[in-house]
Write a structure and sequence with these properties.
Protein name: GTPase Der
Function: GTPase that plays an essential role in the late steps of ribosome biogenesis.
Bound molecules: guanosine-5'-diphosphate, magnesium ion
Organism: Methyloprofundus sedimenti
Shape: globular
Low-confidence stretches: none
Strand content: 15-25%
Subunit structure: Associates with the 50S ribosomal subunit.
Family: Belongs to the TRAFAC class TrmE-Era-EngA-EngB-Septin-like GTPase superfamily. EngA (Der) GTPase family.
Length: about 160
């Protein structure tokens, strides 16, 4: 079976944009994967040496009431099946409390996590990314999922974990 890479992060950071960028090939979408649901979308990624399955999830919010519990369960399932986690944050908006809550959760998971600062197009990537070192999730990879900048470096970081 293919290694599984899960995309997590709060809503609107660009998870689905990155998912679409990496799975843009014909037949990439996996329609018959066991456990497939509306909130977990699977695609095959064939770039780089090792093919893998990429899982897009709904966003993680830090509100604790029941409304998001279904989405949260989907994220949990994605994290359980993941070999590597891509933790996306929004370089334009900067760090917020949801990012910190997610990083706390991911640390407990004890799986390889790659911090990805997205939306660096048209801004100073170094300055925008520096703040996120405070999350202590390692060296962030700066990308723009909208145009593919930085994605090759990201793919190399993923391959190194597989
Ligand atoms: P998700 O909720 O994490 O899946 O986020 P989406 O992929 O739906 O993206 C949320 C918004 O951010 C959309 O309006 C995207 O067009 C925008 N977006 C995503 N990636 C980028 C990027 O690299 N640069 C910019 N400027 N906008 C982006
Ligand atoms: Mg999405």
């Amino acid at each position: 079976t293919l290694p599984v890479i899960a995309l997590v992060g709060r809503p609107n950071v660009g998870k689905s944009t990155l998912f679409n960028y990496l799975t843009r090939t014909r037949d990439a979408l996996v329609a018959d994967y066991p456990g497939l649901t509306r909130d977990r979308k699977y695609g095959r990624v064939k770039r780089g040496e090792t093919p893998y399955l990429l899982v897009d999830t709904g966003g993680i919010t830090d509100d604790v009431d029941g409304i998001d519990s279904v989405a949260r369960r989907q994220v949990q399932l994605a994290l359980e099946e993941a070999d590597v986690v891509l933790f996306l944050v929004d370089a334009r908006e900067g760090m917020n409390s949801a990012d910190e809550a997610i990083s706390t959760m991911l640390r407990k998971l004890d799986k390889p996590v790659i911090l990805v600062t997205n939306k660096i197009d048209g801004i100073n990537a170094e300055i925008a990314t520096a703040d996120f070192h405070r999350l202590a999730m390692g060296n962030p990879v700066a990308i723009a999922a909208a145009n593919g900048r930085g994605v090759n470096e990201l793919l190399q970081r993923v391959s190194a974990e597989l």
